[in-house]
Amino acid sequence: MKSILAEPTQSELSVRKINILKSPKKGGSSDRDAIPYIEGLGIEIFENIQPIQFTPNINEHIHRWAPYVQGFSASFVQSILDQYKKEYNDPVVLDPFAGCGTVLVQAKLNGYRSYGTELNPFLQFIANTKLNCWDISPNYLLKIYNDLPRDNRSSAPSFLKSSSHFNKGVLRNLEILKGGIESIEAKNEKQRKVKDLIKLAFSSILIDCSNMKRTPCLGYYKNKKVYDTAPYVLLDKKIRDIANDLRLIQSQYKDFINTESKVIIANAMDFKHIKKFDLIITSPPYMNGLDYVINYKIEMGWLGFVENHKELKKIKDEMVVCDNVSKGLIKEFCKSGSTYSNDWIEKIKAEIEKNIEKRGHYRRTDMPYIVHKYFDDLHKVMKNVIPSLNSGGRFILVVGDSLIADMYVPTDLLIAKIGSDLGLDIERIEKARERRSGQIRSYKLRESIITLLKR
Ligand SMILES: C[S@@+](CC[C@H](N)C(=O)[O-])C[C@H]1O[C@@H](n2cnc3c(N)ncnc32)[C@H](O)[C@@H]1O
To answer: Is the pLDDT of residue 14 over 90?
Structure first.
C-alpha cells in the first residue's frame, strides 16, 4: 500500500535497510529495556492482555456509526467503568483526547455525564453526533434520507485530489449525495440533528468508496475494486444501522437520552475546565504515530471543515506533536525556553542524537526535539487537567512506547513519572497488548494502561 504522505527516496530506503540489519535492537523487547526505568520508579508492570483497540466496535451499537482506527474498544472502557462502579457514585468522566468519543458514548450508556476536548473539528462533530442525537425518531431519519434530492450535484472539495481518490462513477455519485445532503433543511434542532446523522453516515463511507485504505495510515490500495453504486449501497446500509441503533437506544437506554455529554473543540493543554471529574480516561496520540489531521483530510474536506492545506496544518500544529510536523514548529519549540524536562528525557534525547549521528542518516534529524516536545505537550495536558480531578479520582491513560533510532522510549513509565511529579500516586501499570516496532519488526513494544490516583 502506498502512503499519501511523503515517500522515502530509493537511497533513503537502502540506508534504512542497512540500519535495520545492523540494529542492536533486533530481537529485543521493551520489557527488557524498561527494567532500569521500572526500578527507578519502584513499581512492577502487570500483564493484563485485553482488546483495547477500536476494531471490535464495528459490531457495537452507536460506536459502529463511524470507523476510527485509533479509537478505544468500547468493551475496554466498559471494563474500567465496571471496575470503579462501587467506588464512585454516578461518576463524572472526562476524556481530554476525545477522538470519536468512545469514552463519552460508553459513559453515557451507563448514565454517567461525560465531557471531552478534541482539536480535530471533524472528530468533535462525529463524537457529538454520536452523543446527542439519541432522541431522533428512526422513521423520521429514514424519511428525510429517502427523500434526499438526487438532482443537486455539489463538487468535491477543490484542494483534494478527488479524481485519484475515487473512480469516476463513484465520484459522480458521491457528488450527487453531497448535493442532496447540503439541501436538507436545518431550521430547527430536530432537522439539524437529522442532517448531522446523515452527514456522519456519509463521512463514514468515504474511505470504503475510495481507492484507499486506512491501516492505520491512509494510503492508496492497489487492486481495490469499487463499484460505481458503492456510495448508495454503503450509505443505505449505514443509515439503516443508525436507525436500528436509535430504536434500541429509545427502548433500552431511554433514561439516559438527556444525560449531559459533550465534546468541545479545545486544546487539552490549556482548556480551563469548570467541572470536576471522578475519572479521566484517555489515550493520547502515540509519539511515533499518526497524524490525526492528514489521516482524516478526506472526511474533513468533504464535510467542509477545512478548505485548504493551510487550515489542516494550523490544526495539526496545535496538537500533541507527531513525527511529521513541520521543522519550523520544532525550531520554534527549541527557541521557546521554558519547557518541561527530566533526567530520563535528557538521557533519551542525547542517545537518539548520538545514534542518528552514528547512522549518518535518519528520517528526521530533529527527532530528539520531537521526543522532547511530545513529553512537554503531555506534561502541559496533565498539569492542566489534574486540578479538575476530585480527590480520590483516577487518571487512566492508555499509551504505547516507542523505539526511535535504536533508542527505547518508555512512554508509559515517563507518563507515570510525570503524573507522580505532579502529585499523583502510581497505582498500577498494566501491559495490555504487545506490538511490533515499525522500524525493527523483531523488536517487541507494549501498550500499557497507566492508573494514577489523586489522594
Ligand atoms: C488516540 S486518539 C484518541 C481516541 C479516542 N480514545 C477514541 O476512542 O476515539 C488521540 C486524539 O487526540 C486528539 N488531540 C491531539 N492533540 C490534542 C490536543 N492538544 N488537544 C485535544 N485533542 C488533541 C487527536 O485529534 C486524536 O483524536
So the answer is: no
Q: Give the Å distance between the CA of 196 and the centre of ligand 1.
A: 21
Question: How far is ligand 1, taken at its centre, from the CA of residue 268, in Å?
Answer: 9
pTM: 0.95
Q: Which three cell numbers stand for residue 349?
A: 534525547
Q: Note the pLDDT tens digit of each residue in 334-356.
A: 998 778 999 999 999 999 999 99
pLDDT digits (tens, 9 = 90+) for 141-198: 999 999 999 998 999 999 999 999 999 999 999 999 999 999 999 999 999 999 999 9
Task: Look up residue 72 and give its DSSP letter.
Answer: B
The ligand 1 atom nearest the CA atom of 320: 16
Contacting residues for 315 by C-beta, under 8 A, at least 6 apart: 119, 120, 121, 293, 306
Please tell me if the CB atom of residue 209 comes closer than 6 angstroms to any atom of ligand 1. Answer: no
**Inter-helix orientation angle 230-252/138-146, to 10°:** 160
Contacts by residues 193-197 (CB-CB < 8 Å, ≥ 24 positions apart): 193/129, 193/132, 193/133, 193/135, 193/136, 194/133, 194/136, 194/140, 194/141, 194/144, 195/144, 196/125, 196/128, 196/129, 196/133, 197/129, 197/133, 197/136, 197/141, 197/239, 197/242
**How many residues in the chain?**
455
Q: Is the distance from the beta carbon of residue 104 to the nearest atom of ligand 1 less than 6 Å? A: no
pLDDT of residue 320: 97
Query: How remote is the CA of residue 99 from the centroid of ligand 1, in Å?
Result: 5
Give yes or no for a contact between 279 and 94, defined as CB atoms under 8 angstroms apart. Answer: yes
pLDDT at 368 over 80: yes
CA of 180 to the centre of ligand 1 (A): 31
- For ligand 1, say whether the CB of 268 is within 6 Å of any of its atoms: yes
Q: Which atom, in ligand 1's list, is nearest to the CA of 71?
A: 8
pLDDT value for 290: 80
In angstroms, rounded to a whole number, what is the distance separating the alpha carbons of residues 306 and 311?
Answer: 6
* Tens-place pLDDT, residues 283-326: 999 886 688 999 999 999 999 999 999 999 999 999 999 888 99
- Mean pLDDT of all residues in 48-63: 83
Q: Angle between the 327-335 and 367-385 helix axes, to the nearest 10 degrees?
A: 70
